[in-house]
Amino acid sequence: MTCFMDHRDLSRATATGYLFLLLLFSSFINIWSSCSNGSCQVVDSCSHSTDCGPGLFCGNCPALGKTQPFCIRGQATIPTSVIGGLPFNKYSWLVTHNSFSIVGAPALPGVQRFTFYNQEDTVTNQLKNGVRGLMLDMYDFNGDIWLCHSFRGQCFNFTAFQPAINTLREVEAFLSKNPSDIVTIIIEDYVHTPKGLTKLFKNAGLDKYWFPVSKMPKKGEDWPTVTEMVKANHRLLVFTSVASKEEEEGIAYQWKYLLENEAGDPGVKPGSCPNRKESQPFNSKTASLFLMNYFPTYPVEDEACKEHSAPLADRIRTCYKAAGSMMPNFLAVNFYLRSDGGGVFYDLDSMNGQRLCGCNTIAACQAGAPFGSCKNISMPTPSPMTNSVGSFSGPVQFSTSTSTVYHPNHLMIALFSFPWMISLFF
């Protein structure tokens, strides 16, 4: 009986050992078969950004329950690189809302900044990633023109970011290095200094790229082709929210040329796409550009990946119908990098694909082919999240660093939820 028990125990130990080796071998197989070293594609599991392919980074989307890191798209397809030579208004472009309002941007010395944030990387990086429109709030401040958030149209030291010329010089550097690219700047304008904006853009070296107001279509006709704009070096479009500056400084009045839906919470409400009150009606035939705002009143980094999933595609369809089957030319968002995989970049590809070649994505377009002739393109589908690395609290990581991104907007929303705070500033 004793011998029988010893033999049985030995058999169990042997079986346990075999099972352990089998599990260990399976783990090695999973590791060897998983992607790494830049081979991972969109929604593939990853440990750090170097696992993901070109134009991707490693992040997550806890707002949708996706806490395990996976590869997320971080760069736009420039539509003119696929099908070029069309009028400017035939394309869709990515715009960052409050492009200057960047998490982690240093405040004035000795001042604690007290405002909302809308983006997470520099304007230079935004442009490198395919952003082609910048929304900038400009104010008279400290004897100069600054980028700032506002209370009652006035810039304060606790809402100021930096002199506007710093960001404009980033734009100039980009245009200088990329001679075939076109950038649009939309100014929420609180500058009262006479000729202040004219001097600002000239000092930043951007006057040489200026698209003249005299050449802008005013009756809803097509814009010049992108080829013509590049050849003439008219590669910077600038719009202001102040109507008088079109005559005074030659800066185009925004709502004379752009149709626009309501910004903030009304612009993200499901099933509707209300006309912005300053804008011409959607059925107007005198404006040939359409700016679609898609960002909530109070920006929250953690929620942006959810906002940029299915709800964004639904909103594009809604606004397309509301504007009389007019596809948006500009898509303005907060935290443009955050998504559940493809995000704003996939939606832009879809918009450009439909308008340029009649395909569901621009990747299926074939230059010179008849409209509707599409390549067979397979879209990536989510794969099981098997990576056991912890959740990334800050998904915008373009290196091996996984440091936490600070989320100051949570505090701002909490404070502004109290009526006394609202009455204090508005």
TrEMBL record:
Swiss-Prot/TrEMBL keywords: Membrane, Transmembrane, Transmembrane helix
Keyword Zinc-finger belongs to the record: no
Residue ranges of the TM segments: 12-32
Keyword Membrane: yes
Cited PANTHER family: PLC-LIKE PHOSPHODIESTERASE, PTHR13593
Name the UniProt record assigns to this protein: PI-PLC X domain-containing protein At5g67130-like
